[in-house]
């Protein structure tokens, strides 16, 4: 367990097995929500967001989102579980993930500058966005190579590469969408108390940048696929024309040969 205490709130980063110890420090008004949170993450992991706003003291947001997915195996997934209420933020990891631990340590400095638990979760989400923006930069290099291969070759192998990097882009887009949902849930819960903060505004702008990038790459990939289909269709038409000409030329010769053979039989 790791704990970072700020003047107005505390952040606990724990393992699943340590959650039972927190019942005593959870604000009384949200203990029932915390019990639901523990129950949810004890079952098989799936994306989910839950927002409760009955009163200021009972405002609570919790859930899970998929922050990493293996490119080839759909069963290899990594989730971030979070529970946010007044004065407390809890993040949960299921396994010892080195990349996640590094991410947590990188975000601790920015989290310490936050004045609320909801703002603290925004800071953590901002670190995730930065991580995936770097992945988009790496994707851009692959995209540029495929773009020139498409220009010079434009064959089935290039089309397969286009579909491969398109799948990679979809995975990045999916994470951005999940982070967007969490930000919207936090906004719903705390409204202008959160949206007027510098951390939220910066996180929101950074997310918009990521979504805009992947949208533009998606449009370019769709254009490339469409062009590939047009070229393939054109080539298919050329082949059909060649076969038609060949048939038109060979049919009279075949008929003449048949008549020639019939004359000999007579």
From TrEMBL:
<dbReference type="Pfam" id="PF01544">
    <property type="entry name" value="CorA"/>
</dbReference>
<dbReference type="GO" id="GO:0000287">
    <property type="term" value="F:magnesium ion binding"/>
</dbReference>
<keyword id="KW-0813">Transport</keyword>
<comment type="similarity">
    <text>Belongs to the CorA metal ion transporter (MIT) (TC 1.A.35) family.</text>
</comment>
<dbReference type="GO" id="GO:0015087">
    <property type="term" value="F:cobalt ion transmembrane transporter activity"/>
</dbReference>
<keyword id="KW-0812">Transmembrane</keyword>
<dbReference type="InterPro" id="IPR045861">
    <property type="entry name" value="CorA_cytoplasmic_dom"/>
</dbReference>
<dbReference type="GO" id="GO:0015095">
    <property type="term" value="F:magnesium ion transmembrane transporter activity"/>
</dbReference>
<protein>
    <submittedName>
        <fullName>Magnesium transporter</fullName>
    </submittedName>
</protein>
<dbReference type="GO" id="GO:0005886">
    <property type="term" value="C:plasma membrane"/>
</dbReference>
<keyword id="KW-1003">Cell membrane</keyword>
<dbReference type="GO" id="GO:0050897">
    <property type="term" value="F:cobalt ion binding"/>
</dbReference>
<dbReference type="InterPro" id="IPR002523">
    <property type="entry name" value="MgTranspt_CorA/ZnTranspt_ZntB"/>
</dbReference>
<dbReference type="InterPro" id="IPR045863">
    <property type="entry name" value="CorA_TM1_TM2"/>
</dbReference>
<keyword id="KW-0472">Membrane</keyword>
<keyword id="KW-1133">Transmembrane helix</keyword>
């Amino acid at each position: 367990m790791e704990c970072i205490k700020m003047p107005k709130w505390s952040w606990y980063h724990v393992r699943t097995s340590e959650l039972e110890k927190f019942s005593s420090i959870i604000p009384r008004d949200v203990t029932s929500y915390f019990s639901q949170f523990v129950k949810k993450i004890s079952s098989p992991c799936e994306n989910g967001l839950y927002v409760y706003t009955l009163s200021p003291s009972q405002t609570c947001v919790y859930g899970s989102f998929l922050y990493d997915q293996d490119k080839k195996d759909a069963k290899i997934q990594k989730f971030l579980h979070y529970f946010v209420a007044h004065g407390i933020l809890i993040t949960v990891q299921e396994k010892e993930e080195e990349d996640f631990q590094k991410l947590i340590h990188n975000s601790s400095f920015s989290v310490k500058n936050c004045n609320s638990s909801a703002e603290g979760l925004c800071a953590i989400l901002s670190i995730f966005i930065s991580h995936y923006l770097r992945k988009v930069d790496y994707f851009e290099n692959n995209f540029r190579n495929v773009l020139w291969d498409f220009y010079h070759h434009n064959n089935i192998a290039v089309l397969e590469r286009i579909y491969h990097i398109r799948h990679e882009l979809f995975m990045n887009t999916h994470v951005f969408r999940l982070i967007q949902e969490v930000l919207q849930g936090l906004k719903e819960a705390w409204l202008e108390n959160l949206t007027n903060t510098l951390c939220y505004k910066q996180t929101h702008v950074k997310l918009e940048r990521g979504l805009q990038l992947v949208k533009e790459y998606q449009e370019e990939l769709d254009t490339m696929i469409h062009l590939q289909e047009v070229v393939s269709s054109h080539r298919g038409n050329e082949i059909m024309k060649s076969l038609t000409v060949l048939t038109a030329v060979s049919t009279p010769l075949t008929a003449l040969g048949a008549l020639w053979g019939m004359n000999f039989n007579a």
